[in-house]
């Protein structure tokens, strides 16, 4: 089953993405699959913050782990709604999630 996730890119364009819930993907991988400008240089290990995004609506996400918190404490452009895309697995609970890509640094 796919879920709909909306992602606003750095130019303000909103992309409505169909995200498969049966492939063990995360938000960073979804962005890369749709060729959105997300680096993911650490390969999803919460070590680079190049997949940082801002959560724009009230969808229940998995709790932030220690590695993600530590990386965000050192990253640029962090806001109270910042998350690392690589740390958000795509599940049916994400239906309707709206995100915005953080600026590159």
Structural commentary:
With 105 residues, the chain is of the alpha+beta class. It has one domain (2-97): Beta-grasp domain (Ubiquitin-like (UB roll), Roll), CATH 3.10.20.30. The chain is 15% helix and 24% strand. It has 2 helices and 5 strands, in the order E-E-H-E-H-E-E. It has helices spanning 27-33, 66-74; strands at residues 2-8, 14-20, 52-55, 82-84, 98-101. The chain has a 5-stranded mixed β-sheet with strand order 2-1-5-3-4, with helices on one face. A hairpin with a 5-residue loop joins strand 1 and strand 2. The longest helix has 9 residues, at 66-74. The chain is globular. It starts with a strand and ends with a strand. The mean pLDDT is 96.
Instruction: Provide the spatial order of strands within the biggest beta sheet.
Output: 2-1-5-3-4
Radius of gyration: 12 Å
End-to-end C-alpha gap? 35 Å
| Poorly predicted runs of 5 or more residues | none
Question: What is the overall number of helices?
Answer: 2
CATH-derived architecture: Roll
Name the helix and strand elements from N-terminus to C-terminus, one letter apiece: EEHEHEE
Assign the CATH topology: Ubiquitin-like (UB roll)
Biggest beta sheet summary = 5 strands, mixed
> What is the top-level CATH class?
Alpha Beta
Task: Give the mean pLDDT.
Answer: 96
CATH superfamily: Beta-grasp domain
Silhouette: globular
In total, the number of strands is 5
């Amino acid at each position: 089953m796919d879920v709909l996730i909306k992602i606003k890119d750095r130019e303000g364009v909103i992309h409505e993405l169909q995200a498969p819930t049966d492939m063990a993907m995360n938000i960073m991988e979804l962005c890369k699959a749709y060729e959105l400008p997300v680096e993911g240089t650490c390969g999803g290990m919460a070590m680079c913050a190049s997949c940082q995004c801002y959560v724009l609506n009230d969808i229940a996400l998995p709790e932030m782990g220690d590695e993600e918190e530590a990386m965000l404490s050192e990253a640029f452009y962090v806001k109270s709604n910042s998350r690392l895309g690589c740390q958000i697995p795509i599940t049916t609970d994400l239906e309707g999630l709206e995100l915005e890509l953080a600026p590159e640094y």
